[in-house]
Amino acid sequence: MPRALEGKTILITGAAGGIGRATAEVCGEQGASLVLADREPPQELVAQLQAQGVPARAIAFDVMDRAAAEAAVADIERLDALVANAGYCPWDDWNEAGWDEVFHQVIDVNLLGLMHLTRAALAKMSAQGAGRMVLVSSVAARMGGLAASPHYVAAKGGTHAFVKWLARKAADSGVTVNSVAPGATETGMTRGQTFDANRIPLRRIARPREIALPIAFLCSDGASYICGATLDVNGGVYMN
Fold first, then answer.
1. 39-60 confidence digits (pLDDT tens)
2. Active site residues
């Protein structure tokens, strides 16, 4: 695979599994140095990548903690790209007792946490005069999702609007901001859920690597003129 990310340092959140892990593997194959973050440090993944010759280190922080997010970004000497992948999608019923509390947690992880992270990253990238941000959204924001609950749909809808706001703010500093909106994907988040393949034109849900490859492209110089876009990677569920 071409080493399109040679010499770039990329921070990936939610890196321990699923789309985050696949993104780390793809970016490593393409030559990037990686800072891999999750609530617990993804040491096993880092060991795997280092054994393959990929420069990588593991860190841990909670994206809901603004100070922790800022400290994590500040500790990276140069940050060429951010992949904001940390997410939370409970499969619940909004009629359940206690649902309002879950709503706030979903918004805090998927939207407020995103703002904590990108605020810190923008300051660093602006000082550098360049950078890429890729926010991982969802097809749920496009058309209500195949099975997602309303708190997740609302949070990801907010992500789509935020991408445009942040892209306009960041562009003058040489920083591009885009998002990828996956459809249902084979990850821990969807394990145990049933999806009707007949509702997906490609007749299957995605493999994590199929989401990771477009993310890696948006981190590369090949995406230098893409700004404020949401790339739909959903097997044809939503066509824009």
1. 999 999 999 999 999 999 999 9
2. 152
Whole-angstrom Cα distance, residue 94 to residue 229? 31
pTM attached to this predicted model: 0.94
Q: Residue with structure tokens 């280092």?
A: 50
For residue 183, the enclosing domain spans 9-233
pLDDT number for residue 71: 98
Residue 136 in any domain: the answer is yes
Tell me, letter by letter, the H, E, C secondary structure of the chain: CCCCCCCCEEEEECCCCHHHHHHHHHHHHCCCEEEEEECCCCHHHHHHHHHCCCCEEEEECCCCCHHHHHHHHHCCCCCCEEEECCCCCCCCCCCCCCHHHHHHHHHHHHHHHHHHHHHHHHHHHHHHCCEEEEEECCCHHHHCCCCCCHHHHHHHHHHHHHHHHHHHHHHCCCEEEEEEEECCECCCCCCCCCCCHHHCCCCCCECHHHHHHHHHHHHCHHHCCCCCCEEEECCCCCCC
Whether the CB-CB separation of 41 and 69 falls below 8 Å is answered with no
Q: Does a structural domain hold residue 68?
A: yes
| 240 within domain boundaries | no
Q: What is the CATH number of the domain that holds 49?
A: 3.40.50.720
Q: Please tell me the total count of domains within the chain.
A: 1
Could you tell me if residue 238 is inside a domain? Answer: no
Please check the confidence at residue 195 and state whether its pLDDT lies above 90. no
